Amino acid sequence: MADYPIELDNVSKEYRLWGRRSQFATLKSALLGRDLKMAPEASVPALTDVSFSVDRGEAFGIIGRNGSGKSTLLKLVSGILKPTRGRVAVSGRIAALIELGAGFHPEITGRENIYINGIMLGLTKREIEQRFDKIVEFSGIGPFLDQPVKTYSSGMYVRLGFAVAVHVDPDVLLIDEVLAVGDEEFSARCIAKIQEMKYRGVTLLFVTHQLDQVRNLCDRALWIDKGRVEAIGDPMRVVDAYLQEVSGTTMATPPEPAAEDAAPAEPEPPPQKSELDEERWGSGEIVIRNVALTDHKGRELVALGAGTPVVIDIDVEARVAQDDFVFGLGIYHADGTCVYGTNTEVEGFVPEKIEGTARVRFVIESLDLIAGTYRLDCAVHARNGRAFDYRRNVLRLIVGSRIHDIGVYRPQHEWKFDGGIAFHSIDPTRQNVPAEIAEAMREIDADKRGKRKK
């Protein structure tokens, strides 16, 4: 098998239930029965045949209802629990934040707990001393460092635990829902630190009910329900499938119109691969019928120049009237980099009602993109993120330009020079040609002029 930092193969975990009948009433009854073995009355499966692997440097999110087996899964990966069946393989140094305050002794100070926790995570005393100041600075609990940990609030527990865990240079970082205890400022700092660790190749496995973090931070996601894998893969799709299940709707089966005399709506065709490799999912209560990129005269565009004014026209049909809806779009470079994304909610539009057919227009006065190929995602969803219709790669656009700068965005600008700086004058038709090519073209023109004089 491939060398993965985390790999689970058909892992199952069962917990034994001990009732009164499985216990001895007295020592005398046990001796008279001549059987000192106790047997559980029943067992409950917490996980059943779970298999997945996580690549090095990947952020892998685990979502699901309370009691679905998420924390049990993390404890199996960390080695706190052993599987009843199957194989769990983890390579590298592991740092875990699984239970609030786990590994801390309440009677001793924060300073002493940093040393004890660091040693438990595999550091030497000298290594802890080298990182001590950074740990304290990140945690932000400096004034209380020499107070007993039992006097700390739950947020201070998390700050200290997370600060130690991320500064032991782990190969694998496991995080349970404990980050939800922290305040907004500390959560933002944690996310920034996690992104930095991803860049350094640290593998992240975390359980959370904060679905936006899964969408924005994770490379893949796992939805687990009643101990079984329901979905695994792209975080957008996995989160949306989970939300559809929680809301009691079925994905990709659009409902019929509410009017009794209306003809039944034809089901949306199943997602098909086009030349754009478009992906599509959602409940179908609102459907995006068409998305077009047009100029100011309404003509559809595929290729355009940098700085072109454009309009994104989105034709929608609400098969069931809704008062909770958000329209969003995202522009991505061909390499997957997100260039820009927004939606009506973040821009302050409060939904009131949508029914029947409608058109949404997103007007861009100047699309200042560097030359290249881009794709467009378009979606309509509920405010909690549950998709009515999500269309990924719905459009492809090609931006052409004589400009040879790099990146994705070109702000309007001009160059100004003062002092002893001079440049050759450039033919305006060649001003966006790289300097080496422009110089070669000048030499060719000079040769031509010389030949004409002869």
Overview of this protein structure:
This protein is of the alpha/beta class and 454 residues long. The protein has 2 domains: 6-15 and 41-246, Rossmann fold, CATH 3.40.50; 279-400, Distorted Sandwich (Coagulation Factor XIII, Chain A, domain 1), CATH 2.70.50.60. It is built from 9 helices and 18 strands. The protein has helices spanning 27-33, 70-78, 110-120, 125-139, 154-166, 184-199, 211-217, 235-247, 435-453, and strands spanning 6-17, 42-54, 59-63, 85-90, 94-97, 172-175, 203-207, 220-225, 228-233, 279-281, 286-294, 303-305, 308-322, 326-333, 338-343, 354-367, 372-381, 387-400. A 6-stranded mixed beta sheet has the order 5-6-7-3-8-9, sandwiched between helices. Strands 10, 12, 14, 15, 17 and 18 form a 6-stranded mixed beta sheet that branches. Strand 8 and strand 9 (228-233) form a beta hairpin. The longest helix is centred in the C-terminal third of the chain and has 19 residues, at 435-453. The protein is globular. The termini are far apart. The model is unreliable at 252-275 (pLDDT under 50).
